[in-house]
Amino acid sequence: MTGRVVDALVVGAGFAGLRSLHTLRERGYDVAVIEANDDIGGVWYVNRYPGARCDVESYDYSLSFSPELEQEWRWSERYATQPEILRYVEHVAQRFDLRRDVHLSTRMERAEFDETTGRWRVDTDRGTWDARYLVMATGQLSVRAAPGIPGADDFAGTTLHTADWPHEGADLSGKRVGVIGTGSSGTQLIPVVAREAAHLTVFQRTPNFSVPANNGPIDDARDAEVKAGYADRRERARRSPSGLGFVPNKQSALEVSDDERRALYEEQWRTAGFGFLLAYYDLMLDQEANDTAADFVRAKIAEKVDDPATAAKLMPRGHPFGAKRPPVDSGYFETFNRDDVDLVDLRETPIERITPTGVRTTAGEVGLDVLVFATGFDAMTGALLRPEIVGRGGETLREHWDAGPRTYLGVGVAGFPNLFVIAGPGSPSLLSNVLLSIEAHVDWLADLLDHARDRGATVVEADPGAEARWVEQVNARAEATLYPRADSYYMGTNVPGKPRVFTPYVGGVRGYRRILESVVADGYDGFLLSGKGRDVRAS
Ligand code: NA7
Question: What PANTHER family does the entry give (predicted)?
Fold first, then answer.
């Protein structure tokens, strides 16, 4: 059994939790991390499916707080694979001696704020912790969404989930494999499985816009070049809307000629990956502008896929390009040119049920040996709402978020003092280079806690009015974009019963950072500080 008294208990040992541990420890807090999995790494520990990679470039999806770490780590590819990222996590943990404060195989079950002591009592399946601060670093994509397809338990073959792939791997050779889901996970997995399996059937409910990764090895000259200018690269990323360093084009897609636009799209297609979305500033703001990019991607699909009927099925329609997170793929569409790969369009022939021998759609049964679910996550709020978290007056977080997540700046929650969320709902989070957003949050939170400590405050909480205004701002910003026009995990529509609310803050990393800075300049405006039985002025 574990459990003891600490200044800060961090939940989750992925990048957010490990970075929180390192930084808060450096600032002199007594910190412990609990992690439900049996090892560190968070999403990168569990998402071990073949083909799993980051869709942000390695140099940007890496920790920035230590120039020495930046210089000594050598990424091998433009987009790192899951095993390489996990090796990096392990290196970071060793280099900064993090493991000694990480308690593995320890799941948080309940937390309750004690209004008399201003501390959290946190119950886990391996003991109880007493912490002044509770830092939720539980990840945005760590709870799987239940696909709700009848008969899933009846399947007599092997059932796999992309986020629960066996550590020893799965032998798919000679097997008839079915994959349900064509989001980022499915799109990465499908080309790899197609090469290994005897036959692959892809069950697609919604076709996805996907952009090519243009992945490749990093040679020594390129590595030296990036490392020579790493500080500038980081600063560029912090000042960019996406946290990826792309400078958005100030032009509208509609103010240039068709030829000029096509030329830029071609160039972005060959080079940009995720940055394709920033080819023009209004691609996510104006449907007509977005249509130009969507038409371009559809034309690319037609070029890549030999059979016109299959190409037509793969072409997304009815939602804006980018409103569902576009996968960054390596040979996804081309996979459908193989003779041993079939596409089942579930809009035409929906799944009726999973049977012991395969998947039955309205067109009949597809016999399978292996069924893979790439069906996504209860994103952003799933892991925060799984344990019971009880704040002031006995209110639970589930009650507080009944109509959708409510936070102040995506960090604090009114009525839940001393509870903080890293890259939570209402912050750029998954809409950005999430690792950059994690680091920004951790540093900002550490400053806030120091500020409280300097003033003798022991309780830090978001003011309900500040929270209400922030929620309004998050919603208003989202409504001004095309994002709410698609069903997506950003909107929570993939989880039955989840409120239909756009969860991340859409105003970009750069704008969000300015807001955080102005909150600090105003003496942490919107946070209430108190302690030792008296109110403490915030500034
Ligand atoms: P996503 O992007 O949520 O994709 C899930 C996919 O699974 C998507 O194509 C869904 O179709 C499909 N799905 C979900 N439930 C069903 C059922 N019941 N029947 C058929 N198809 C279904 O999750 P990913 O894991 O791919 O990616 C998550 C993030 O990880 C990604 O954005 C990156 O940031 C990394 P739908 O579109 O809902 O019709």
Answer: L-ORNITHINE N(5)-MONOOXYGENASE-RELATED (PTHR43098)
- Domain of residue 258: give its range: 240-304
Structure-block tokens of residue 314: 């793969």
Cα–Cα distance for residue pair 423/118, rounded to 1 Å: 24
pTM of the entire structure? 0.96
Does any domain span residue 361? no
- Helical axes 15-26 vs 82-95, angle rounded to 10°: 20
Task: Kindly state if the Cβ of 178 falls inside 6 Å of ligand 1.
Answer: no
Please tell me the distance from the alpha carbon of residue 370 to that of residue 159, in angstroms, as a whole number: 6
Residue nearest to atom 36 of ligand 1 (CA): 206
The answer on 391 and 530 residing in a single domain is: yes
Do residue 300 and residue 402 come from a single domain?
no
CB 400 within 8 A of CB 391: yes
428 and 512 both lie in a single domain: yes
Ligand 1, atom 17, residue with closest C-alpha: 147
Helices (H), 272-307: 287-304
- Phi first, then psi: give them for residue 86, nearest 5 degrees: -65, -35
Task: Please name the residue whose Cα sits nearest to atom 37 of ligand 1.
Answer: 206
Task: Give the model's confidence band at 272: pLDDT under 50 very low, under 70 low, under 90 confident, else very high.
Answer: confident
Please give the Cα distance from 392 to 414 (Å, whole number). 9
For residue 539, the model assigns a pLDDT of 41
pLDDT tens profile 479-493 = 999 999 999 999 999
218: helix, coil or strand?
A: coil
Strands (E), 452-497: 459-462
What mean pLDDT is reported for the chain? 96
What is the mean pLDDT of the segment spanning 247-251? 88
Predicted confidence band at 532 (pLDDT cuts at 50, 70, 90)? low
